[in-house]
Amino acid sequence: MDQATISSHIAAAHDVIARLRAEVGKAVIGQEAIVDRLVIALLIRGHVLLEGVPGLAKTLLARTLAGAIDASFHRIQFTPDLLPADITGTLIFDPAGRAFTPRQGPIFANLVLADEINRAPAKVQSALLEAMQERQVTIGDTSYRLPEPFIVIATQNPIEHEGTYALPEAQVDRFVMKLRVGYPTQDEELRMLGIYLDPTAQQISIQRILRIVEIEQIAHLVASVHVDERISRYIIQLVSATRNPANFKLSSLVPHIEFGASPRATLALAHVAKGYAFIQGRPYVIPEDVKAIAPDVLRHRLVLSYEAAAEQVTADAIVEQVLGAVAVP
Q: How many CB atoms lie within 10 A of CB 196?
């Protein structure tokens, strides 16, 4: 397809995505930026880690998004006594047929909500890691492909550490974005309270906006969004600045960064920037797209030093400095 045809198709698909975002907004007051990034993750087949204190509608976000698309949805509540077979499935002995038959677990869904993922022990997290990375599950001696699309939305509570297990760096890196869910504004909270206190308010009904086949078609359009070579070089420079900050006149960050972002971060920045450009209705990526999503893509990929922790320097603050230091094309 030529650029004009791609632009017209993106404009038509953009209207559908706008309806999807509006449908999710019926049940989730505020959090528009989080909704946009979840939609991007759906379109680029990326997994997302949601972090926020209890009561910020993290579970509602995932459930509502699943309700607005024609896709299967399973919620897994992670606990310290969870076993890998509880999420992947296991072999069940059938006395009638005198044979073992596979029983697939809740991981077999298009959209999986891994609630409080950091409460699961290492064996469960490793089983989830295979599913996230390989998009398959092994039960017995047979591997089974997971449905397409397959997206994991995981949640974790940043303020409670009792009975939790820190996620391994290798697994955290598999999440294309880590989103911080913040408090709503006073006006948004007033709207929530009004709905809750209204005795005549009916339960909000979420309509299905997208079918699986449409998601696949739109995903192909997102993949066709153009990334200029200058934008690619800009992305590479941003990632390089987290590895060698002194080369970008950021010597003050050297003692704060133990390890910079990996090449997987470079690919994620490009993919998410294309998705962000798409939901803005553009067939090409501009520097502002990269800057808008850079904190979400990079914050969980930087390994900070003890000195950074002692001085309360956050990954977001480091990303902000990097964005200010690297020249925009």
A: 8
Q: What is the dihedral of CA 223, 225, 228, 232, to 10 degrees?
A: -40
Could you give the residue ranges of the DSSP H alpha helices within the chain?
3-27, 32-44, 58-67, 84-88, 122-134, 169-172, 186-197, 212-223, 229-243, 263-279, 287-298, 306-310, 315-325
For residue 64, which amino acid is it?
T
What are the chain's domains? 3-219 (3.40.50.300), 225-325 (1.10.8.80)
Amino acid found at 184:
P
Give the pair of three-digit tokens for residue 53: 């204190």
230-256 pLDDT, tens per residue? 999 999 999 999 999 998 888 888 899
| Cα distance between residue 204 and residue 191, in whole Å | 14
At 239, the amino acid letter reads V
Return the DSSP state at 226.
B
Structure tokens at 85: 């077979």
